Amino acid sequence: MALFLDQYADIIALRQALDNKQISVKELTQTLLGEIKHHANLNAFVDVQADLSLAQAEIAEQSIACGQAGALTGIPLAHKDIFVTEGWRTTAGSRMLADYRSPFDATVVQALLKAQTVSLGKLSCDEFAMGSGNEHAATGPVRNPWDLDVVPGGSSGGSAAAVAAGLVLGATGTDTGGSVRQPAALSGICGIKPTYGVASRFGMIAYASSLDQAGVMARSAADLALLLDAISGFDPRDATSIETCRAVANAPGRILSDYTRFNNRNNTQPLAGLRIGVPNEYFGDGLNNDVAQAIDQALVVLESLGAKRVSISLPNTALSIPAYYVIAPAEASSNLARYDAVRYGHRTETYTDLADMSARSRTEGFGEEVRKRIMIGTYVLSHGYYDAYYLQAQRVRRLIAQDFQRAFADQCDVIMGPVTPTVAPAIGSLSTDPTAEWLGDIYTLSVNLAGLPGLSVPCGFAPGHRSQPLPVGLQMIGNYFDEGRLLAVAHQFQLVTDWHQRRPGAPT
C-alpha cells in the first residue's frame, strides 16, 4: 500500500518539503483527496468535501508564501466524526444524526484550523464512540490497513486506519476507555490521551462526560507533541476544562516545552534515572504470549537507554472493567436522553402519539450496542440500584486512582505495559459474545477512570488473523500533566527503533 505520504517520515519532513516549495499545499491536498477516494475500501472516511479542503489549502499556501508558516501550516489531517465541524457532516457514526451539519466547530477543530492544518474530512467511529473495533458505525466496519479482515480498533478506528494507511499524517480522536490508545496500538501508529481536562470537550458529542477526552493520533511521538500542543489549553466553554490549573493547562507551548526539556540530554543514556513501573496485574492470565514478549523486548530497549524497570502493583486493575461499564453507560443514558425526536435526531415516519414517536425514533436511530449501553445505564441509575451499583462503582474508581498515586509517589516515574491483551481480532469474531470486546479494554480503562495521561507507541508485531503479523502497542502512563515526559520517553524509544516507521504492505 505505497501512498504519496509514505515518502515523508513525519510532519517535520513534510513541513520542510512545503517550505522548500517541493510541493504546494494545494497539490498535496488534491493528491490525498484522490488517494482517499481510491482507498474507499478501508471505509475510514465518512464525509469528504473537496472544496472546503482546498479552501483551507489556499489559506495555508498564502501563509507559506508570506513566510508566516507555523509548524502545522498545510499539514493534512482529518477529524473523528464525534467532533462537530462547520461544513462537514457530523453523525457520531449513528443514524440518529445521519444528516446533521453543525453551525460551528468544536474547540479542538478550531484550534487546529487556527494552526492552519488542512482537514480532508470526517473519519468513521463506533456509534457515539461506543465500541472497541469500529464495527458499530452506521456506515459499517472500518478495515485495518495491515489486514483488511481485522478491525483497526475503536472507537477511533477511522482515525487510526487513515493515519496507518498514509491518507493523512495526523488525526483527532477521543478516548473514553482507551479509544485513542487501543486503535493506535492495533493499527501500528502512535496515539495519546492527555490528562482529563487539558483538551477541551466543547463541541465533542458526549458519551460519558467524566471520562471522555480528546486526543490525537500520528506516526511518531514527535508528531503527537506538535498536535497535542495545538489542541491543549483552558476553554471557558467547557465546564470540565481545568480552570483551577490554568497556569499549567493553558500555558502556551506547555506540551512542547516539557517535551523538549525532557529530551534535552545528549548522552548515550538519555533515560538515566527514569523509573519504569511495570504492573504485575498487566502480565497475568489473558495476555497473549507473543504480545507479552514484544512488550518485554521494548522494556529491554528502554533499559539500555538508562531506564530502570521496577515491579509495582495496581491491585484494583481487575475492577476497572465492572466500574467502567457501570459509570460509562450511566452517563451515556443521561447524555443520550436528548435524542428524543423532538429536540434532536432522527424522527420515525410512522407513529401514533408523542411517546410512540420517541420510542420508535430511538429504536430506529440507535444501533444495538448503543441501545444496550443505554439500558444498562438506565438500570444502574434506577431506584433501588443507584446505591448498589453506581455509587459503588464511583468508590472503586477512587481506589483505582489511589493505586496510581501510590505508585507515582515513591515507586516510579512512568508506568508501562501492554495496550491490549491481543493483536487486532477479525471483523465479526467477537459478535457472538456481547461483552467479549469489553474485556480487551482491561489495560486502558483504569487510566480514564483516574483521569491520567496515556500514550501508545508501536513496539513490535505478533501473529494474528491467519497467522499474519499484526502490530503491538506499548502503553506509557504518566502522572497528571506529565504528557511532555511521556512523549519525550517515547521519542527516545523511537530514535533507536523503527517500529513506528513500518508501513502496511511492507515486510515486518
Descriptive overview:
The chain is of the alpha/beta class. The chain has a single domain (7-285, 288-313, 408-499), classed as Alpha-Beta Complex (Amidase signature (AS) enzymes). It is built from 17 helices and eleven strands. It has an eleven-stranded mixed β-sheet, with helices on both faces. Helix 10 links the parallel strand 7 and strand 8. Helix 2 packs antiparallel against helix 3 (50-65), helix 7 packs antiparallel against helix 9 and helix 9 crosses helix 17. It is globular, with a radius of gyration of 21 Å. It starts with 10 loop residues before the first helix and ends in a 13-residue tail after the last helix.
Q: What is the string of SSEs from the N terminus onward? A: HHEHEHEHEHEEHHHEHEHHHHEHHEEH
Count of beta strands: 11
Distance between the termini: 13 Å
Q: Beta-sheet strand percentage? A: 5-15%
Characterize the largest beta sheet: strand count, sense, and whether it forms a barrel: 11 strands, mixed
The chain-level mean pLDDT equals: 94
Could you outline the blueprint of secondary structure elements for this entry?
Layout: H1 11-19, H2 25-38, E1 45-47, H3 50-65, E2 76-80, H4 107-114, E3 118-123, H5 157-165, E4 170-174, H6 181-187, E5 190-193, E6 214-218, H7 221-231, H8 246-249, H9 254-263, E7 275-279, H10 289-304, E8 308-312, H11 320-335, H12 354-365, H13 368-381, H14 386-410, E9 414-418, H15 436-439, H16 445-450, E10 454-463, E11 469-477, H17 483-495
Please tag this protein with its features.
Amidase signature (AS) enzymes; 508 residues; eleven-stranded mixed beta sheet; 12% strand; 11 strands; alpha/beta; single chain
